[in-house]
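Sequence in, structure out.
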Amino acid sequence: MQKPASVRARAWAFVCDRWLSIDLRTLGLFRIAFGACLIANLLDHATGGNLTTFFSNDGVLTNHFALFAPIQLRVWSLLFAFSQPGEVAVAFAVIFAVYLLYTVGWRTRLMQVLVLICFISIQNRNLLLQDGGSFTCSAIAVWTTFLPLGARFSLDAWMRQQRLVARGGVAAPPGPPPRHVSFVCLALLLQLAVIYGFNAANKSGETWRGGSAVHYILWLNSRNTWLAGVLRAHEPGWFSPFLTRATLAFEWSAPFLALCPLWQKPLRRLLIAAMWCFHLGIASLMSLGPFAYAMMTFSLLLLGADDWKILEARSRSVRAFVERRLKLPGLARASAGLAPFWEYLLARGRARSVADESVSTPAPVARARTRWEWLALELREVSSVFLAILMFIELMLANNVPGLADRLKDRPEWMGDVLYYLRVYQTWSMFAPDVPHDDGMLVVDAVLSDGTHIDPLTGAAPNFESPLGGPSRYDHDWSEYTYYFPWDRHRAYRGGLRDYLVTLTASWPAERHVKVRSFEVFWVSADLPPPGELGARNLRRESLLSYNP
């Protein structure tokens, strides 16, 4: 009678160990890295004039027009309440504070929810800036909302330890490293497998089959970095075929490496290293928003207990080295200056522990609290399973999976609405099915009162040969905006750029003694050079809008 139970127990322990549990230290490290990624993305939106250009009513898309003619379904954003650049700057400062508190782990559970709200609010404020990185960050933020990210390496954990010490307990009880068991751990592994697997499956075009995909990617001036410009000028014949096939091999193998129950430790270490190499390569050559850094952060969730033995040993060595070599007087004074702050936190923790012990809780209330905790636990697991089912249905529909998409297309509308509100689309098809064979840029030809021509976006004369040159001047927000702007389905939003240019030129200093009489916005594009050639060709221009008051 005991043998079947023992077999079931061993099977359950195996499943938990392989797919349903995660080290709490891993969650703490992930929270810090993901918080840093979110902060960097926020600063990218806020600097270089992007805050005004893309998130205020002085920019290319006013809040009232975004609400009147939403680009996609179920759009909501807290930033719709802020119109002027100063108001948006205050909202960004609040979002920065939320991201920072999330990173250091203060009231982490609350901050996890606020981070999700803030990130979706930024994304929805101007959907002409969305990209694969936005979808990736949304999916990560949604899934990790269910997890105790503040259990380690956080202010919450530190204060919890101080309360434990104040009660006479031990701050670090002996035993195996604590792990969190939840279906969400499996959901995150499946999400990672889906991102890579469907990106690989959708790359079915000739550039991927023939090995020329990386070559054409190097010539996408509107997205590339200076390094891509240098590399493509000296590209050997084997370079693109090798990296194209290596990309497909990595994306096809990633689901297996993440989910394989055997040799899990070496396979996951291999996957972590491969993800960092792959995405660092992408980030060095292209501007794809937070995608590369979000996926590198995602890889940290694969760290296990054995990995932490190595990391903790290395961290002790580094700490010892710093203590030996960097004993600076200034550092000691800074530490002494922070002493009152640490004493305040410690006293607050002790006072809270005394208050907790001074109140006697009747047994029925304690049992009720336990029942409520179990109810919350069950609700969390049921909610995560339900969300996974909705994402699976959306995955089949968004990627038009044969045999399943037709059966699921008549699903209730509310199933899609849940995912639209959370912005967790499951369309994974970056540079798929083919890499573009052409590229273009926005060029504004403004005629001044003295008859000269100028491009207000650059401050120089209009360059109608810009696609023939090197990587463009765009930062990531401008790159995404100019990518979506020429689409015919976005024609209604072209007036926003016209109004922005009018406002921009009206704010020029009066000492220039010139005014803009008229301007015209062109989409200037060219065909990318095939392998073996070094110059774009077939330059062409298309007028998108004009202004002649």
